[in-house]
Design goal:
alpha+beta, 18% helix, Immunoglobulin-like, disordered N terminus, 982 residues, 9-stranded antiparallel β-sheet
């Protein structure tokens, strides 16, 4: 068989249709207005809060001082400029699904009129009237529904020809880097920002700089000068900068050095490194002292057989060489090892050299240098390499990351069997030159260092490079903040950006109001062949034993600053339910203040698509698996139903760490790292970025992580509400009013007295149960049950489980059906289950439970049944009052009329008990008392939400007489007589 035919055969065996099991179409309110009545927590308000959001401690508060949390949707490009009717529909839909914030990004593109606020032309000094009309109307509609706006002031803008910015046509894509470095670019951009923020929205009558709905201003989207340095973008040639902009940055660097040191002599003095101690720091590296060998040999496996001895017959020089003979090994590098002691000085440059050979070519081995004392960290040298069959010299340069008096040079040989010969091992300190020939401040010719050139750059010089880039970034953020605050008078929240690649990025933003970070799980990977093919890993984040992407989001948490997080996952991942469940739950636990789903749409056309658009992997507009779960998850997060962590694990950083970003490689930018899973057990945040000492291995303070091995099936929060089971890829959340499970959902799950059993053969899924009133789930009069599994476009054809590149599918989006049995303890007299349709209205039922022994009840939710093809179910429970002998009648799906009753005995003396039913129409509703003289007093005000309401009204201060209790619901009115006797 030829290679070509073999590949075709393999592809044919992998390629198969992977349809959803029992699929049904579902799109939450794609075309019709959604009724939020059943998707609202009792006591929450749908009205717009017109005051400014501000910061109190590390949380957002509204004008009344009430803490506020936000669930946001990100919009890009033309999706930010819908037509007037679509704007209303989008705002309604997002509000009904639980969103209360929207982020606008990518509205400043210079060469794409449909995605820009700018008037077409050769200058950037005028706003486009039509585009602004669309944006103004959209923001007005969002404001009417209580939304807050997160606005990126710079996303993609680059100057136009007549903007007066030198070399405008050679600025890097999106203007990302020069925003920090080019004064002319900054000046022109601020003129544009002023023009936009001083624009008056005709629908609100306010300039955007005075609009409280514009709650957050982000200075630059996904931008970082330090990240550009770290990723080698700041060089010419070979980077992202033109010659002009590279030299501009060179000039700024030399001016920075001139201000700091004054002269070449000052630079040489600051960058001076004492002469190296050139002795060999390896004792008996040539193995000549057979009586004081200085080397330790070990076999660390029950299946490895090996020995060490001196060899006289085969050596490179002298009388002896070291011989490691391995008869048998298990393949683990550490199964056979040889080490010797040495010392290191922090920051000094070393070279390790030795001669070696193996009994066969390409023989693998590993070497490293580490501290044998706490915290047992690596010291800058770690390498996997191979040996040849003939004697050869091997050299490794490294910079010591710490001073260590008990360092160990360790060779691992357990990968293969056979003989290894080692001779003339030397470790020597090297001299370094502060300035290269021809470098001078006088000629602005002192070069900037490459981030990765840690071995070719003296450490003091590299520190100044780090300080230069960090200060340049900090200066931009703080000057921009002064411009917005002092010059324009903006009163909202200022955020630098969402790209925290290093500690330096967070440090440079610490003077701003809040911090933000963006992370994701999984991504699209393109393949060269077949042409146009791609794939995703399609692995669950829950299966990751290091807490997935949560630690990266936690990087943004800083004492005294609210935290905003953005998160993305790609379609057609089977694990999108994790996104909608894990993110809000852990955001609540960590005390993060806003969660943005990245992203909802990037095109106006998306709003009319009943499917996930071709190659729109990150658009959520039609992603039913996420959107169906959001009402419950968003309400639980915003309503504080998930408890915050009981304890905070405070981390400290130092200025020394700031100046050595190359050594920020450990978790949370800690030099010695930590266990990323600390975020699953405690709230994690930075206490100080300028402490005397950096935190060392903070996971030691969490008992579950201090033990070994860690039980990955029981990663339980300190509130005991959130359980991450990485072994079984399952997450469960248990609170009195909200429970959820997502991941490998099969078999039986228990939440205290509540039992959830999956009855179908599927494995991936999410189930949640949310109390819609203030009672615990088992006592809740109304509650929302949500079931969601995999979602995909209809007729999509899978390549294994990783791609649908050959057939993306068609409309509509289909959800995979599940069958779930729910049982719990309940003494309710009446229990009914109703199905909601895609607009949130009662559509089917009632479905009755089964009464079990011991006071338990059981009800089955079956999405494979024609009447239950929905992810949303309303559970109704009612109890008789002790004096009653009849049931309280629950509504039926067709109930369209309000109901009012006064079950309290009459005449009334001290108080009266009122009950009223409102149909699920979403219209305004109110209850009022009318006196015998015709005066009206409001008793209750809200909207028609499809539920029963109970109200206790004191009447002891009313005079005796006959009153009327009047219920007004849309165009319907009901009234009942009320007699008060004295």
């Amino acid at each position: 068989m030829t290679l070509r035919s073999a590949c075709v055969s393999l592809l044919g065996s992998v390629l198969f249709a992977q349809p959803l099991t029992h699929p049904f179409p579902f799109q939450p309110a794609l075309w019709e207005r959604m009724n939020p009545a059943w998707l609202t927590l009792s006591g929450t308000s749908a009205g717009a809060d017109t005051g400014w959001i501000s910061v109190r401690g590390d949380e957002f508060v509204d004008a009344s001082g009430t803490p506020r949390r936000f669930v946001g949707a990100v919009l890009y490009f033309t999706a930010c400029f819908p037509d007037s009717a679509t704007a209303i529909r989008v705002a309604d839909r997002l509000h009904a699904l639980g969103f209360n914030a929207v982020a606008f990004r990518g509205i400043d593109i210079s060469n794409w009129n449909a995605a820009s606020i700018l008037r077409p032309g050769t200058r950037s000094d005028e706003l486009d009237p039509e585009q602004m009309r669309r944006l103004d109307w959209f923001i007005f509609q969002l404001k009417q529904r209580g939304f807050r706006i997160y606005l990126a002031l710079h996303s993609r803008w680059t100057p136009r020809r007549d903007d007066g910015v030198p070399r405008w046509d050679s600025i890097p894509s999106g203007g990302k880097i020069v925003l920090y470095t080019d004064p002319a670019f900054q000046h022109r951009h601020r003129q544009l920002v002023r023009k936009f923020l001083e624009h008056i929205n005709p629908y609100t009558g306010r300039a955007y700089k005075e609009e409280p709905a514009i709650a957050w201003l982000e200075f630059s989207e996904e931008n970082s000068l330090v990240y550009a340095w770290r990723t080698n973008q700041l060089r010419y040639p070979g980077g992202s900068l033109s010659y002009f902009h590279s030299r501009q940055l060179d000039t700024l660097f030399n001016l920075f050095l001139r201000r700091k040191y004054g002269s070449d002599a000052g630079v040489r003095s600051a960058w001076f490194t004492p002469a190296a101690d050139t002795q060999n720091f390896i004792r008996n590296g040539d193995f000549e002292d057979e009586f004081n060998l200085g080397w330790t040999f070990g076999v660390n496996s029950a299946v490895a057989q090996a020995l060490f001895r001196l060899s006289e017959l085969d050596r490179h020089q002298g009388r002896y060489a070291g011989l490691i003979r391995i008869a048998q090994t298990n393949g683990s590098p550490g199964a056979v090892y040889l080490y010797t002691g040495t010392t290191t000085v922090r920051g000094r440059l070393y070279e390790l050299r030795f001669w070696a050979r193996a009994s066969h070519a390409a023989r693998r081995f590993r070497l490293l240098l580490y501290n044998a004392e706490f915290p047992n960290q690596l010291l800058g040298l770690y390498s996997d390499t191979v040996l040849s069959a003939s004697w050869q010299e091997y050299r490794f340069r490294f910079r010591a990351t710490d001073s260590a008096f008990a360092a160990r040079l360790l060779f691992y040989f357990g990968q293969d069997s056979g003989d290894v010969f080692l001779d003339d091992v030397q470790l020597r300190m090297l001299n370094e030159v502060p300035l290269q020939s021809g470098e001078s401040l006088q000629t602005f010719s002192i070069a900037r260092s490459l981030f990765a050139d840690l071995l070719g750059t003296p450490l003091p010089r590299m520190r100044d490079n780090a300080e230069f880039y960090t200060e340049l970034q900090r200066s931009f953020y703080e000057s921009m903040a002064r411009f917005l605050r002092d010059t324009l008078g903006y009163r909202g929240i200022l955020i630098g950006g969402t790209l925290l690649s290093t500690l330096n990025d967070l440090w440079s933003m610490q003077a701003l109001d809040a911090t933000a970070e963006l992370s994701s799980w999984d991504y699209r990977r393109n393949r060269s062949q077949p042409q146009g093919s791609w794939y995703i890993a399609n692995t669950p984040m829950l299966g990751h034993t290091g807490a997935g992407s949560l630690p990266e989001l936690a990087h943004a948490a800083l004492r005294g600053k609210p935290t905003v997080v953005f998160f993305a996952m790609p379609f057609p991942s089977a694990h999108m339910g994790e996104m909608a469940t894990l993110l809000p739950a852990y955001a609540a636990y960590q005390g993060w203040d806003a969660v943005f789903f990245h992203y909802l749409a990037d095109s106006r056309e998306t709003y009319s698509l009943p499917m996930v658009g071709l190659n729109k992997h990150y658009e959520l507009w039609a992603q039913s698996a996420v959107l169906s779960l959001l009402p419950s998850a968003a309400l639980a997060y915003r309503g504080g139903l998930v408890s915050p962590a009981r304890e905070t694990l405070w981390l400290n950083q130092t200025r020394d760490a700031l100046l050595h970003p190359q050594w920020q490689q450990g978790s949370f930018w800690l030099q010695y790292g930590t266990d990323n899973r600390i975020v699953l057990f405690r709230r994690v945040a930075f206490d100080s970025l300028n402490a005397q000492r950096q935190t060392v291995l903070p996971h030691r303070y969490i008992p579950e992580l201090a033990q070994s091995p860690v039980d990955i099936s029981n990663l339980l929060s300190d509130t005991e509400e959130l359980l991450w089971n990485a072994r079984d890829t399952l997450f469960t959340l248990t609170t009195p009013r909200y429970l959820a499970a997502t991941g490998q959902l099969s078999g039986i799950l228990r939440f205290g007295d509540i039992r959830v059993e999956r009855l179908d053969s599927g494995r991936i899924g999410t189930v949640s149960w949310l109390s819609l009133d203030t009672a615990e789930l088992s006592r809740a009069r109304w509650s929302l049950l949500t079931l969601s599994s995999r979602a995909c476009n209809d007729s999509a054809v899978w390549e294994g489980s990783i791609s649908i590149w050959q057939n993306w599918g068609k409309a509509p989006v289909m959800l995979e059906g599940m069958r779930i049995r729910l049982s719990w303890l309940s003494d309710a007299d009446t229990i009914r289950l109703y199905g909601l349709d895609s607009t949130g209205r009662l559509a089917s039922g009632p479905f009755e439970p089964v009464r079990l022994s011991g006071g338990r009840v059981s009800i089955t939710l079956d999405q494979t049944h024609p009447l239950q093809r929905t992810p949303w179910f309303i559970l109704f429970q009612s109890w008789k009052r002790p004096q009653d002998t009849t049931d309280i009648a629950e509504p039926h799906p067709g109930a369209g009329s309000p109901h009012l009753s006064i079950p309290s005995p009459q005449p009334a003396q001290d108080q009266v008990w009122l009950e009223f039913w409102l149909p699920p129409t979403g219209t305004d509703a109110r209850l009022e008392l009318v006196t015998p003289l015709g005066q009206r007093f409001s008793l209750w005000q809200g909207f028609s939400d499809g539920s029963w309401h109970q109200l206790s009204v004191p009447v002891s201060h009313w005079a005796a007489g006959v009153y009327r209790v009047r219920l007004l619901c849309g165009d319907r009115q009901l009234s009942r007589s009320l007699v008060i006797l004295r």
